[in-house]
Design a protein that fits this description.
heterodimer, A: 193 residues, mainly alpha, Rna Polymerase Sigma Factor, Chain: A, Arc Repressor Mutant, subunit A, 2 domains, 8 helices, 69% helix, B: 178 residues, 7 helices, rod-shaped
Chain lengths: 193, 178
């Protein structure tokens, strides 16, 4: 909790520095959150190039509208909200991502059989996640991948914690249905609940 | 604190994130197929590797973002400066035009026909000028110096004037004494 407060204060100071005219404060904030934003963008879009574009776009939009950041919520939840909206807008413009996601990316050069199996399983889960409606996918991405709490997820999604729970559980239910015949399912077939 | 099914299900992402799964939760996952299933899905999701963006992306992004924002600000300024300069020029031109042009608002103007008009004598010929100096027909101009008694009359008091009228015998109807 203390760590959270320290981060909150540090971010607020950087924002204030930027608003006071210190443009290098931008670089510090980008350095601090770029990996998290990129990871979120990749979970949302499933494409490396799109994720890079979305990451850059998120930061540009965030700093252009920095005056709307009132410091009521943490800077990173505010930034995540922009990232989620940027990715969803991009996906809607582009059209829903199809099953043919490119799985050959750098950094995934291991050839051990276990890795291939794990990757296939992960790939299947990822493809299934992309099929979910926006809000269900977003809630699962933020809760499962980014490890945000219910409160943080509700801040990012701009809805109540109850709504986040509903989106998350409906999304998980659909995932179970989609994956019921796959190896991800621990021997349970048919409808989940 | 004893956790029930709903508590465990809600906190599954948190357990996965922390990597710390209490024995109580492990025991529940063994007996509850619903939670066990959800746990395996969440685990598979988190195990999906995150590809490296490559191309020095993270090393260059902070400077790129700062430079883009700076460029954009400059762009806005460079668009605004000529616009302001143009507006200032138009205002200045309008002001100069107004200063140099007499106001001729025909709709609301009033020209007083009795107002004295400056007459340009330079436009008159020599002949015209002599006409101006000549008295009009029937008009006689007498100067006090030309008729000596007139200047004396001018210095008479009203009583003296009355006496004079009496002596001259000018009657009432002719402006004489009563």
């Amino acid at each position: 909790m203390g760590e959270e407060k320290t981060r909150f204060r540090e971010d607020l100071k950087l924002v204030e520095r930027y608003l006071a005219g210190d443009e290098f404060a931008i670089e510090e904030l980008v350095m601090k959150y770029q990996k998290k934003v990129y990871a979120l963008a990749f979970r949302m879009t499933g494409d490396v190039e799109d994720s890079k574009d979305m990451t850059q776009k998120t930061f540009l939009q965030a700093f252009k509208g920095i005056k709307s950041f009132r410091g009521k919520s943490a800077f990173y939840t505010w930034l995540y909200r922009i990232a989620v909206n940027t990715c969803l807008n991009h996906l809607n413009k582009k059209g829903r991502v199809t099953d043919e996601l490119d799985e050959t990316y750098p950094g995934n050069q291991e050839s051990a059989l276990s890795t291939i199996i794990k990757d296939e399983k992960g790939s299947l889960v990822k493809k299934s996640l992309v099929k979910l409606p926006d809000r269900q996918r977003t809630s699962i991405t933020l809760r499962a991948y980014e490890g945000l709490s219910l409160k943080e997820t509700s801040d990012v999604m701009n809805c109540s914690e109850g709504a986040v729970k509903a989106h998350y559980h409906n999304g998980m239910k659909k995932l179970r249905e989609i994956l019921s015949d796959s190896s991800v399912s621990p021997g349970r077939k048919g409808k989940g609940i | 604190m004893k956790l029930n099914h709903e508590d465990i299900r809600e906190k599954l992402p948190d357990f996965i994130k922390s990597g710390l799964i209490p024995d109580e939760v492990k025991a529940h996952l063994d007996i509850c197929k619903e939670c066990g299933h959800e746990f395996s899905i969440l685990k598979a999701l988190t195990e999906v590797p995150l590809p490296e963006p490559g191309g020095m992306f993270f090393e260059t992004l902070p400077q790129k973002v700062r430079a883009s924002l700076k460029e954009e600000k400059k762009g806005i300024l460079s668009r605004l400066v000529p616009a302001f300069a143009l507006i200032a020029l138009v205002v200045l031109a309008g002001y100069i035009y107004q200063m140099r042009t007499p106001v001729l608002d025909e709709g609301f103007s009033f020209i007083d026909p009795l107002a004295p008009v400056a007459f340009d004598l330079n436009s008159l010929s020599e002949e015209d000028l002599t006409l101006i100096d000549e008295p009009l027909e029937g008009e006689e101009i007498y100067l006090a110096d030309e008729i000596p008694f007139l200047s004396e009359l001018a210095y008479l008091s009203s009583d003296e004037m009355e006496d004079l009228y009496e002596e001259l015998g000018i009657e009432k109807e002719n402006g004489g004494v009563l």
